[in-house]
Amino acid sequence: MTMTMHDHGRLQPQSALFDRTIDDQLLRLRGLVLAGKLLAQRGASDAEVEEHVREADRVRAELARLIGDDGLEPAS
Q1: 18: how many CB neighbours lie within 10 A of its CB?
Q2: What's the CA gap between 59 and 65, in Å, rounded?
Q3: How far apart are CA 49 and CA 69, in angstroms?
Q4: Alpha carbon 3 to chain centroid distance?
Q5: What pLDDT shows up at residue 68?
Q6: What backbone phi and psi angles, to 5 degrees, belong to 3?
Q7: pLDDT given for residue 67 in this prediction
Q8: Per-residue pLDDT tens for 31-47?
Q9: Which residues, 6 or more positions from 4, have their beta carbon under 8 angstroms from its beta carbon?
Q10: DSSP character at residue 47
Q11: pLDDT interval class at 14 (50, 70, 90)
């Protein structure tokens, strides 16, 4: 098991850092989806909403890469 330094000088397994990366990406994805819906509700342009959709798709692809599942399809 690989150990690395993390917050406050504590040693944490490499898998803990990996899990945090996934958690961060999931949180980012949720924020993008919610912000896109809010923009659409408030009458934002199609381009603004589509920008959030594209970024959410990119984050989904990164999550798929991180967890090793290339079978996820982007939202349409």
Answers
A1: 12
A2: 10
A3: 27
A4: 25
A5: 81
A6: -110, 145
A7: 85
A8: 999 999 999 999 999 99
A9: 11, 12, 13, 14, 17
A10: H
A11: low
- Name the amino acid, one letter, at 25: Q
Query: Which sign does the torsion angle of CA 15, 16, 21, 24 carry?
Result: positive
Strand 3-6 vs strand 10-13: parallel, antiparallel, or unpaired? antiparallel
Place of tokens 């959030």: 52
In one letter, which amino acid is 49?
A: V
Classify residue 63 by burial, with Cβ atoms within 10 Å: 0-12, 13-18, 19+: middle
Handedness of CA 40, 46, 50, 52 (dihedral sign): negative
Q: Residues for the chain: how many in total?
A: 76
The pTM assigned to this predicted structure is 0.65
